[in-house]
Fold this protein.
Amino acid sequence: MEAIQKAKLLKARRYRNRRLGDFLKELDLSEGRATGIPTIQDELRKNGSLPARIETDDARSYFLIEIPCREGFKNTIEPIEQESKLKSKHKDELKGELKTLRIILDLMIENPEITTMALVEKSGKSRSTVQKSIRILRNEYCIDRVGGKKYGRWIVLM
């Protein structure tokens, strides 16, 4: 418990899933010591905040961590406003993606022999956007291609 409170060096000796831990370390989503507590304490120290207060039981079956906010810190954006802005941004992106998928589908219905380059020209979208849309439509089993790239044709399955 003393080591946890100091948060200088912690060693986790119980592993639930070693492979998952190694995978998360490779992605820099966890520390090599299997805990983020030293990182949290270091960042709080750099920020001028008080250290985090940590509570656990002897079996370490749970961790409660209280992260204090330093004096003078002021959040300029309300969390709910920030969250709603993010949601509306994602909603707009999704609407744009769906609109692009609909354009691609309509062009394929109109002309099943249409090539990818013709889809790019007629849709006004970039090549990578059209290719991404085709990949999504194929993965969702909305379209299929019969024949080769040059002389094949699209089959709209929905």
Q: What stands out?
A: The chain has two domains: 2-66, 96-156. Strands lie at 53-56, 63-66, 143-146, 153-156.
